[in-house]
Amino acid sequence: MHIAVLGAGSWGTTLANVFARKGESTSLWVREPKLAATIRTQHQNPVYLPDIALSPEIQAHPDLETVLKSAELIVVAVPCQFLRGVLNEARPLLPKKPFVICASKGIELETLKPMSEVVAEALHELHPTYAMLSGPSFAREVARELPTAVSLGCADTKRGKMAQAALSTEAFRVYTNSDVRGVELGGAIKNIIAIAAGISDGLGFGSDARAALITRGLAEMSRLGQAMGGRAQTFMGLSGMGDLVLTCTGDLSRNRQVGLKLAHGLSLMDILSDMRMVAEGVKTTEAVFRLGQRLNVELPITEQVYRILYEEKNPSEGVSELMGRELKDE
Ligand SMILES: NC(=O)c1ccc[n+]([C@@H]2O[C@H](COP(=O)([O-])OP(=O)(O)OC[C@H]3O[C@@H](n4cnc5c(N)ncnc54)[C@H](O)[C@@H]3O)[C@@H](O)[C@H]2O)c1
Ligand SMILES: O=P(O)(O)OC[C@H](O)CO
């Protein structure tokens, strides 16, 4: 099968490497022409995935047309806020009824739409089938071929099974789930809770506080997720609880790192200007905060993270406000 991967950040590069090592014909769209040349000639991505030897079989290129030529499966792994723009560029180069797997995790801030809606809208003339790849998966661990299990949300069972078989390897186990909305929302919302967990840990609030944030964060994810059409059970799976636990506890998480730095007194602007990589939770916090208001869903952790990120609220105050809320049933 010929797979085209769009986006050569840490995740797109890693996925392309998994597919190429498995023996699939794999092309990779690299936005930065110099980086494309480095991947092609040195089989390394020193910018986003340093110290990982990549398969020499990856056909890296900065030209979308070259990368998409005769692709049977298109995997998109660009930061969420760029997804629509990249798909708009790709649209005239795609066949009718393309199969698109989106591996981005977040909400489009301008429209408050989840990624599957962005894919469906951007490509609607082509009648695409789409699937969402999500779940606990740090690029660096997947790239080292450490055991990883993820979810593929796809409403088309037949194509979902085909993609599951194409993407799975001995170290990368793909589960299917027909609840596309639930799968994608878990991956988007966990990033906000990871920022909160980073803040709590950075303030030295200990393991009890982190466990409470993860558990109440799961309740928050499930509440909004169901209000947006996801199934409760999906939030208990890999793309929900699994990814939440990973990003709230694993120091490889960029979102958790943002929280840790905020707790140490750095401003959001300084943190972001020092980061080359994306921390999707920053923009998704604003999007989810607004969705909570629009849908009238209570999201206390998201609200505090929003105020810390965008209203310069003191992080310790945010945590005390969470603790001081009206007492409730669980
Ligand atoms: N890194 C991971 O471990 C991981 C795992 C699972 C899912 N994801 C998701 O994958 C998506 C991509 O993240 P990443 O970690 O690969 O990114 P990254 O932070 O490693 O790299 C940033 C990427 O953004 C691209 N970029 C910058 N400006 C752009 C523009 N104007 N238009 C298009 N692209 C632009 C860069 O070329 C680069 O590919 C995110 O939604 C992320 O949540 C990441
Ligand atoms: O580094 P993060 O916080 O973007 O997390 C990466 C992946 O989403 C983990 O599953």
List keywords for this structure.
binds nicotinamide-adenine-dinucleotide, binds SN-glycerol-3-phosphate, 10 strands, N-(1-d-carboxylethyl)-l-norvaline Dehydrogenase, domain 2, 52% helix, alpha/beta, Rossmann fold, NAD, oxidoreductase, 330 residues, globular, 2 domains, two-stranded antiparallel ribbon, eight-stranded mixed beta sheet
- Can you summarize the main beta sheet? 8 strands, mixed
> What CATH architecture of the largest domain do you see?
3-Layer(aba) Sandwich
Unreliable residue runs: none
Q: Order the strands across the largest sheet as they lie in space.
A: 3-2-1-4-5-8-9-10
Give the CATH topology of the largest domain.
Rossmann fold
- In round numbers, the mean pLDDT is 97
What is the structural class? alpha/beta
The proportion of residues forming helix, as a percent range, comes to: 40-55%
How many structurally independent domains?
A: 2
Bound molecules: nicotinamide-adenine-dinucleotide, SN-glycerol-3-phosphate
